[in-house]
Amino acid sequence: MSHSHTPTASPRRARTHRAVPVARAGGDASCWTATVQACEGDDRFVVACGPVLLQARQASSCLLVPMAGDMVACIRTGAHDIWVLAVLQRDAKNTAPQVLQCRGDTRFVVSQGALQLEAPELQLRSDRLALTVSQLRVSTETAEVVGRHLRVIGNTVKVVGSVLSTVMDRVNHFSRNYLRTTQGTDRVAATHIECEAEQLLRLQGEHALVNGTKLVKARGAQIHFG
């Protein structure tokens, strides 16, 4: 007597979703997305993937510093090594400045083409700034330089403008040759004026006027008039 067996469909296994993928044997890394819950400093963060909270570190390739509420891409490279690879999305309501951070000496190299920085407002903050260029051109509507000490060194210095105004407590000037030409009025107003020449002092004009309210004095080994 033979018995026939009618094949029955095997029940399908219910799909399970793991909140945090586990690294496979052999060192294969697993990636997923998570939300940053808190920043603990020193490139360490608390990320949430579903109900699970994990400790993660910022990868060197993640230049944008994550903030609380960011959606980030994470990778697990070991049993407990979890890294934040990149910031995928940030809440538009978060108005805090975005920070790009590189630790250690950093160098940007553009092998071909030009590097341009464009922003409505650009600020540079540094304890020391060194700029080495073959040619430098600055074009601006208004410029203001504020500092305790300002030193300019150059073989040739040329300043061209319509109005020059300087306010100094003390001015010291030294030059081997000093030539000055004024087309209009050249006027000096001071409490005391002293001119001294080692060899020759010459004053020449179509009309020469010397006015002394109390005293006019001329002294020399020889005095010639006319």
How is the topology of this model organized?
Elements: E1 30-41, E2 44-49, E3 52-58, E4 71-76, E5 82-89
Parallel strand pairs: 3-5
Antiparallel strand pairs: 1-2, 1-4, 2-3, 4-5
Looking at the overall shape, the CATH architecture of the domain at 30-89 is: Beta Barrel
What shape does the CA trace take? rod-shaped
H-E string: EEEEE
User: Gyration radius, to the nearest Å?
Assistant: 39 Å
Structural class: mainly beta
Q: By CATH's scheme, which homologous superfamily of the domain at 30-89 applies?
A: Nucleic acid-binding proteins
Distance between the amino and carboxyl termini: 161 Å
The low-confidence parts are 1-28
Fold-level CATH name of the domain at 30-89: OB fold (Dihydrolipoamide Acetyltransferase, E2P)
**Could you tell me the number of beta strands?**
5
Q: Main beta sheet: strand number and arrangement?
A: 5 strands, mixed, barrel
Please characterize this protein's 3D structure.
- The chain is mainly beta and 226 residues long.
- The protein has a domain of 60 residues: Nucleic acid-binding proteins (OB fold (Dihydrolipoamide Acetyltransferase, E2P)).
- The chain contains no helices and 5 strands.
- Strands 1-2-3-5-4 form a 5-stranded mixed β-barrel.
- Strand 4 and strand 5 form a beta hairpin.
- It is rod-shaped, with a radius of gyration of 39 Å.
